[in-house]
Amino acid sequence: MPDTLPAPALPIGHYGYDQVDRAFLADRVEQFRDQVARRIAGTLSEDEFKPLRLMNGLYLQLHAYMLRIAVPYGVLDSRQLRELAHIARTYDRDYGHFTTRQNLQFNWIRLEDTPDILARLADVDMHAIQTSGNCIRNVTCDQFAGAAQDELVDPRVHAEILRQWSTLHPEFTFLPRKFKIAISGSPNDRVAARFHDIGLVAKPAPDGGTQFDVFVGGGMGRTPIVGVHLRDDLPEEDLLAYLEAMVRVYNEYGRRDNIYKARIKILVQALGTEGYRQKVDAEFAAMNRARYRLPPETVAAIRARFGTPDLHAPDDAAAQLDRARRADPVFDRWVRTNTHPHRAPGYISAVISLKPAGGIPGDATSAQMDLVADLADRHAFGEIRVTHMQNLVLGHVRQDELHVVWQALRGAGLASANIGLIGDIIACPGLDYCALANARSIPIAQKLGARFASPELQETIGPIEIKISGCINACGHHHAGHIGILGVDKKGEEYFQLTLGGSPGSDASVGQILGPALPEDATVDAIARLVDAYLVHRAGGERFLDTYRRLGAALFKDAVYATA
Amino acid sequence: MPLLENGRLVPDPWTTLDQDAFLPAAGPVIVPLSRLEEGLARPPGEQLGVALPPDAEIATLRTVLPRLSLVAVTFPIFRDGRAFSQARALREHLHFAGEIRATGKPLPDQYEFLLRCGVSTVALPAGSDPQVWARAHTRFRTAYQPSVRGERAEGATLRRVL
After folding, report:
1. Closest CA to A347 of A372, A383, A386, A373
2. Where in the numbering of this chain does the Nitrite/sulphite reductase 4Fe-4S domain appear (chain A) (predicted)?
3. What is the average pLDDT across B89-95?
């Protein structure tokens, strides 16, 4: 290409690759093509191949290979989403599944197709690196980053810095266990920072720069723990050096004898917060700080590869939205439940629910992906965000265009007005797909969705988070659900254990087990009784979680088990 | 056991002693950490190496390091990545300039990581194809973070030119 052509516009909301990044990814695809060829030829055994395919996000599940594609900090551009739709149509069964880690999974992939799929992804600057394995996984981020009214610092540039730093990190790719980092720039935690191996909250520093609150050792799984606060004043220039020290201490001292005790949360509990902090501080003091310093010029160079939206709404954008809401109560309800306040006048963020009543949480068809990509191009600067609640977001929509967006979504079955409500259920893939599961999560989610399908009823019940995991590994985040549902196996039968009082946010807490597990056909009715009990006892506008915290478990226990 | 340096097979002048083997008075030998005192008791001019288990604290070598020409780190299984941190601590905290040898069962796909953590030679596991290791040596031209090798940064970016 001659040098005289204008540079293509940078993508809005995420880092734009250049030739060096593309060459790196191409090398990586060729490496994997070579590995797959060796596997198919039989010179690599499945044992030898397994770690290599896992490094490229390729799992062998119950029925087929599953390919998990990284969506760094949950931000896609329309070109990328269209490519995902194309892959779903060509190589899978015409749909994809958005995950709680803001990634996308394809569930029906053939091994021999994977090098071509990875090459197609590389064409749009995407990959599946480190979506599996005992390494630093995709860094997750606030779905309203760069748009939210309550945000103090847009954390995506730092999320990108962490993505680059952790990519094929020479020291931290064979950790005791997987490692998940989340970053937010808002005091209202929407990333579950306290449930991650490391949670970071960016905020303005006294000198006008950026500094970070650091949480460590949170997690779910078999041992749910709310992370501890390590420090509140980490300067930007020490971000990488300090994380190097934190992860190095884990690499050296984390347990490797028992997979269930290998996460950093177990190490932090064993050493105590102070013991862990001392080791990190000693490492930090001993390391070559100049080498690992993150200079402002590097932050600026990476920031310069981000496109930024040119936000100019007409003066009467808000008034137009008001008029449209008054004219259409169904639209009005959707705006109430599915939008988030934007920092710029005349703009708003819109959440596209992937939780239709009776549907599979997080699934989207190729046609739906194409439609969302088109809407993003027309109304949201070509930018789409994936949320850890398994929905999509158009971050920057002009308020006067919101009604048009909603109409298009409604035509595609994408306008369920249930964000943050009882229909907005997180569910892991469960025994329908997963080799680890004990029970099927999806049918419970579908039945609950159908039971509470009425938007009026959902709004009456108000904010409530139901989260379903098909096994103790807790991929459905049941520990952090206001109502958590855990699938267990009782002598070959699927049972479901309820936990109450979990919360992922700034008021993080782990849900408590309510009582004996219930058979599948009793679970949905039990939850309906729980909700009824809440509606009877709630005071004022309090959420389900607040009522539970105020009154305790007893009345809910009665509601669930009295008639059982 | 074939020895790899810079992606090529090289002769190995070292003898690795196990727990019970006779310690010769002369010649380059690698002793287990538990026999380090014995090794150090040999005449000062004789080349000495030590083989570390993955749970050894690098800081304990601080005072003896000037007497050592080689430190072997080990991967009991490839997934046990503690040796990466040991190698890096040797280079970065203790400024060890001698040979760091990777032993055990590393994968060729880990070769670049080994080098970037400060490992200089790899004792190839039984059944390894040196050509696969050689290919791994030249596969990537870019990395995204600083390492002990102090590669040149590409402008103001995080990227390093390998």
Report:
1. A383
2. 132-284, 464-560
3. 95
- How many other β-carbons are positioned within 10 Å of the β-carbon of residue B139? 17
Q: Give the architecture (CATH level 2) of A317-411.
A: Alpha-Beta Complex (3.90)
For residues A81, A86, A88 and A92, what is the CA-based torsion angle, rounded to 10 degrees? Answer: -160
A169: phi then psi, degrees, rounded to nearest 5 = -60, 125
Give the span between the Cα atoms of B87 and B93, in whole angstroms. 10
Classified by CATH at the fold level, domain A19-123 comes out as Sulfite Reductase Hemoprotein; domain 2 (3.90.480)
Nearest CB among A48, A170, A251 relative to B116 is that of A170
CB contact under 8 A, A287 and B80: no
By three-state DSSP, how is residue B82 classified?
Answer: helix
Tell me which of A54-63, A64-73, B125-134 is least confident.
Answer: A54-63
Tokens (6 digits) for B155: 């402008």
Answer whether A165 sits within 8 Å of B145, measured CB to CB. yes
Single-letter residue type at A3: D
**At a CB cut-off of 8 Å and minimum separation 6, what does B126 contact?**
B1
Residue with tokens 């060890």: B96
Q: A152 near A203, Cβ under 8 Å?
A: yes
The structural domains of chain A, with segments of one domain joined by +, span 19-123, 140-303, 317-411, 426-561
Domain A140-303: top CATH class: alpha beta
Token duo for residue A327:
């004219």
What pLDDT is stored for residue A51 in this prediction? 83
The CATH architecture that domain B3-161 belongs to is Alpha-Beta Barrel (3.20)
Distance separating alpha carbons of residues A446 and A462, to the nearest angstrom: 19
User: What is the CATH topology of the domain spanning A426-561?
Assistant: Sulfite Reductase Hemoprotein; domain 1 (3.30.413)
DSSP A481-549: SSEEEEEEEETTEEEEEEEE--B-STT-B--EE-SS-EEHHHHHHHHHHHHHHHHHH--TT--HHHHHH
Q: Which stretches of B24-125 are DSSP H helices?
A: 36-40, 82-92, 111-116
Contacts of A168 in chain B (CB under 8 A): 112-113, 140, 143-144
Q: B44 pLDDT band (50/70/90 cuts)?
A: confident
pLDDT in tens, A110-140: 999 999 999 999 999 999 999 999 999 999 9
| Contact (CB<8Å) B142/A170 | no
Distances (CA, A) of A399 to A267, A293, A376, A494, B98: 48, 42, 14, 46, 65
In this structure, is the dihedral angle defined by the CA atoms of residues A238, A243, A248 and A249, taken in order, positive or negative? positive
A140-303 and A426-561: same fold? yes
- Report how far apart the first and last C-alpha atoms of chain B are (Å, whole number): 28
Nearest to B124 by CA among B133, B115, B135: B133
DSSP label of A429? -
